[in-house]
Design goal:
There is one protein chain. The protein is α+β, with helices and mostly antiparallel strands. It has two domains: 32 residues, no CATH class; 128 residues, no CATH class. It is 41% helix and 18% strand. Strands 1, 2, 3, 4, 5 and 6 form a six-stranded antiparallel beta sheet that branches. Strand 1 and strand 2 form a beta hairpin. Helix 4 runs antiparallel to helix 5. 14% of the residues are buried. This is DUF5819 family protein. It comes from Kitasatospora purpeofusca.
Length: 184
């Protein structure tokens, strides 16, 4: 009951016009809302995707002898697509968690992959934790680092409408991120 009340108050303060209370407690309100309860208005003004992203991960393990072993790329997007395509009632998390985690990471980090704020660092950890949990669920080998690769491909535009110019396929490899023994 208390958690529900706190949640309602935090969401209200987040969506309410700026006021003294929301300014004073803004740090706590944002920590409560992002990234799980973020609000947007795309339901009323949809902005359809013009690109698809294929997010893959690979891991690095250092053997007791000191040799470094890098795994093959593991397609995280294919796992999500499979969870959606083979489920009559797919969950919202299966459909959007990885994609939204990437979207907010890319928006908060730009092209240099440096966390410039506490929120950006939190979003980086969120994306890393999703990747670690998905890879760990499929591969049961230990690893100390993980790297993500995002291949962005344009969705074919309707050429008769002449709306969007074709954009080239882009590949972005993120830096290697440390993974603690507990997976975080």
């Amino acid at each position: 009951m208390v958690v529900a009340l706190v949640h309602v108050v935090m969401v209200f303060l987040f969506v309410a016009p700026s006021n003294e209370v929301s300014k004073h407690y803004g740090k706590y309100i944002n920590a409560w809302i992002y990234p799980l309860f973020e609000q947007n208005w795309r339901l009323f003004a949809p902005d359809p995707q013009s690109v698809t992203q294929q997010i893959s991960a690979r891991t690095l393990h250092t053997s007791p002898e000191g040799s470094r072993e890098v795994s093959d790329w593991f397609d995280l997007t294919a796992v999500d697509d499979s969870a959606v395509n083979h489920n009559v009632f797919p969950s919202h998390a299966s459909q959007n968690m990885l994609r939204r985690a990437w979207d907010v990471y890319a928006a908060s980090h730009g092209n240099d992959d440096r966390s410039k704020s506490e929120r950006a660092l939190m979003l980086q950890k969120y994306l890393r934790n999703i990747a670690v949990s998905r890879v760990s669920a499929d591969r049961h080998d230990a690893f100390e680092e993980i790297q993500l690769r995002v291949i962005t491909r344009p969705i074919a535009a309707d050429t008769s409408a002449g709306r969007r110019p074709d954009t080239p396929t882009r590949t972005r490899s993120l830096p290697w991120w440390k993974v603690a023994s507990d997976g975080n």
